[in-house]
Design brief:
Helix content is 34%, strand content 24%. It is of the alpha+beta class and 112 residues long. It folds into 2 domains: 63 residues; 36 residues, no CATH class. The strands form 2 sheets. It has a 4-stranded antiparallel beta sheet, covered by helices on one side. Strand 5 and strand 6 form a beta hairpin. 9% of the residues are buried.
Length: 112
């Protein structure tokens, strides 16, 4: 689960982008930890005001997501699986954004 830390002069902002495979139980744990969501429910954010709070946030993220199994399939298989899931849910025109990857009707693409 990629997490982005934006460092500003007064605070640090942690951002987490939801992907299709995240279970509701993990979303609930993020909300319990006071992460905010945007209107599309695709991004979670948390404002961090100190380095001790940053350390605590990283520890909490590890508690929430730390027991996930490592994904051993190739990037192509991952993107294809997301695309297939979108097709089955009749949302095949949507892109699946995951660190520069997306799947469309005409196949997959990865860009850096």
């Amino acid at each position: 689960m990629p997490v982005t830390f934006d460092i500003y002069p007064e605070f640090i902002e942690a951002k987490l982008h939801r992907v299709d495979t995240i279970d509701r139980v993990y979303e609930e744990k993020l909300m319990e930890e006071k992460w905010s969501r945007n209107k599309t429910l695709q991004r979670y954010k948390k404002k961090i005001n100190s380095f001790s709070e940053l350390e605590n946030t990283i520890c909490k993220l590890n508690e929430v997501f730390g027991e996930q199994e490592e994904y051993h399939k190739s990037l192509e298989e991952l993107i294809t699986a997301y695309g297939t899931r979108r097709i089955h849910t009749k949302d095949s025109t949507a892109w699946i954004n995951f660190r520069g990857c997306y799947y469309k009707n005409n196949g997959y693409h990865y860009c850096v």
